[in-house]
């Protein structure tokens, strides 16, 4: 006994809870999660709410004393009600996926364990699980195979944007190093990278963060199917090279975020080879669709990429945030992040698994155990069942396109390649207006305005949620399906909701 009466085995300031309270708390949160997982359509897709209302509900002051379990459970249930329901079968906006039950429970367990997955020494089990999850993801999308499995590696990131940023950093470092070694890279010669006009905004943003400047991202036009025009790419690279610039990287989209178009990866790989460019594939939206049998051929050439980004929190339906960056030669990432030539020396040593550290391959030091939700999802469902879900998402988007094409008052605005359908509402008189050269421009402007108002009305209505894309300057309603709950009936119902909103606005 110490002088203040404690035996040294307990402390007054603990945040531990007695077993009974722990279980009660667990039941409260389990109930909340279960209700959501078993029927997210019980709530409107988008809450009928306002910023003012939310400030009133959740904007209170710092509580000095705890509110207790009942008040907490009530408050959390209210947060759920005041949220957009990403798991709702008619949530078609952006790229929003439901969380699989397995992924959700795995996230809870990983949070409780609270591993810091910096390295093998910090988290031996979780590190091996992450390395396995990364390998499985690579295999799922057909990245790896002959000879590649030896050198291929990568890591999980918070999302696709971080994966892209890390990829461009490694690309730039690798080429700067190679060029300076060969005495090629003159002082101040701008390093340029290439991508289509459909590329995701995280690419110019990454270039900006890396200090390359957004103007160093050379925007290459896309073709009628919104795919990178490979001939224009080649011409642009050659012209820049003649003008003393230093092309170092080409980014192909394996599923653009606007329409889901997949660039001709094998042809882009050809240009990258000819000009010694780093070939990065941004597959944040679409790469996982390569696991669907009917889509595999679209991704031919992905195995030639130097790096690939993909998002398990999109098309593996894991809870946010989980991206993944794969390197064809992980060693190049290690050299880039090491910042010295020393990295090369290590190649010749026997890589010791127990010396492995994720900080050698990306920007983060402290890292959550993201891999558990990926690993658990694949372990529980198996690759076949996950791929079948993706396949059905794609088929559902194709069905939507079919319904749009068959309708008098809808117009399809882009080919449906994967799970995204872009279209607009076109009433009969506007249809006539589009046929005539003289009235076409005015009619298009009117349709842009009408469809934008339709989108807002549908979003606020809470029955379905679509977002938009700007396609060659035209406003398109955009429905994205990465949701294993969405059925054809949801598609029919949503088109009816849109039609009704449009007629109300017109009438
Ligand atoms: C979503 C997306 C990104 C960004 O990924 P986050 O996970 O949102 O950071 C990048 N590229 C494409 C093509 C995307 O669809």
Average pLDDT, to the nearest integer? 93
The top level CATH class name of the largest domain? Alpha Beta
Order of helices and strands: HHHHHHEHEHEHEHEEHEHHHEEHHEEH
> What Rg is obtained from the alpha carbons, in whole angstroms?
25 Å
Instruction: Give the fraction of residues assigned to helices.
Output: 40-55%
Bound molecules: pyridoxal-5'-phosphate
Number of H- or I-type helical stretches: 17
Could you name the CATH topology of the largest domain?
Answer: Aspartate Aminotransferase, domain 2
Please name the fourth-level CATH homologous superfamily of the largest domain: Type I PLP-dependent aspartate aminotransferase-like (Major domain)
Classification by helices and strands:
alpha/beta
**Overall number of strands:** 11
Overall shape: globular
The gist of it:
With 507 residues, this protein is an alpha/beta fold. 47% of the residues lie in helices and 12% in strands.
Describe the structure.
The chain has 507 residues and is α/β, with parallel strands linked by helices. It contains 17 helices and 11 strands. The protein folds into 2 domains: 111-381, Aspartate Aminotransferase, domain 2 (3-Layer(aba) Sandwich), CATH 3.40.640; 385-506, Aspartate Aminotransferase, domain 1, CATH 3.90.1150.170. It is 47% helix and 12% strand. It has a 7-stranded mixed beta sheet with strand order 1-7-6-5-4-2-3, sandwiched between helices. β10 (467-471) and β11 (474-480) form a beta hairpin. The termini are far apart. Bound molecules: pyridoxal-5'-phosphate (PLP).
């Amino acid at each position: 006994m110490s002088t203040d009466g404690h035996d040294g085995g307990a402390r007054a300031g603990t945040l531990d809870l007695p077993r009974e309270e722990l279980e009660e708390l667990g039941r409260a949160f389990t109930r909340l999660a279960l209700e959501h997982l078993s029927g997210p359509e019980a709530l409107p897709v988008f809450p009928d709410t306002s910023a003012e209302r939310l400030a009133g509900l959740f904007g209170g002051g710092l509580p000095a004393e705890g509110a207790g379990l009942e008040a907490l459970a009530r408050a959390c249930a209210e947060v759920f009600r005041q949220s957009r329901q990403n798991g709702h079968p008619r949530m078609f906006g952006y790229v929003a996926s439901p969380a699989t039950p397995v992924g959700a429970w795995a996230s809870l367990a990983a949070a409780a364990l609270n591993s810091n997955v910096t390295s093998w020494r910090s988290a031996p089990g979780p590190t091996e699980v992450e390395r396995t999850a990364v390998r499985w993801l690579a295999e799922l999308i057909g990245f790896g195979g002959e000879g590649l499995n030896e050198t291929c590696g990568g890591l999980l990131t918070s999302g696709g944007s971080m994966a892209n940023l890390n990829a461009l950093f490694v690309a730039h470092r690798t080429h700067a190093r190679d060029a300076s070694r060969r005495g090629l890279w003159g002082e101040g010669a701008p390093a340029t990278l290439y991508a289509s006009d459909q590329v995701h905004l995280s690419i110019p943003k990454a270039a900006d963060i890396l200090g390359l400047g957004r103007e160093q991202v050379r925007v290459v036009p896309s073709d009628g199917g919104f795919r990178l025009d490979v001939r224009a790419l080649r011409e642009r690279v050659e012209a820049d090279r003649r003008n003393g610039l230093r092309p170092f990287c080409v980014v192909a989209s394996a599923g653009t975020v606007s329409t889901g178009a997949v660039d001709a990866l094998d042809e882009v790989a050809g240009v990258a080879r000819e000009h010694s460019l780093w070939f990065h594939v941004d597959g944040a939206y679409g790469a996982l669709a390569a696991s669907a049998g009917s889509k595999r051929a679209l991704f031919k050439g992905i195995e030639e990429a130097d790096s690939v980004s993909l998002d398990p929190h999109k098309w593996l339906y894991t809870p946010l945030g989980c991206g993944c960056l794969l390197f064809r030669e992980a060693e190049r990432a290690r050299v880039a992040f090491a910042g010295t030539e020393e990295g090369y020396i290590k190649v010749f040593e026997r890589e010791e698994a127990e010396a492995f550290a994720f900080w050698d391959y990306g920007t983060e030091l402290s890292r959550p155990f993201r891999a558990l939700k990926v690993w658990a999802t694949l372990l529980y469902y198996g690759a076949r069942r996950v791929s079948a879900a993706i396949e059905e998402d794609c088929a559902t988007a194709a069905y939507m396109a079919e319904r749009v094409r068959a309708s008098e008052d809808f117009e399809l605005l882009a080919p449906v390649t994967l799970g995204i359908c872009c279209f607009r509402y076109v009433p009969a008189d506007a249809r006539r207006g589009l046929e005539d050269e003289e009235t076409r421009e005015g009619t298009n402007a009117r349709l842009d305005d009408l469809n934008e108002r339709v989108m807002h009305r549908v979003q606020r209505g809470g029955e379905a949620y679509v977002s938009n894309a700007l396609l060659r300057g035209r406003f398109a309603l955009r429905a994205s399906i990465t949701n294993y709950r969405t059925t054809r009936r949801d598609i029919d119902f949503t088109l009816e909701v849109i039609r009704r909103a449009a007629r109300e606005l017109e009438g």
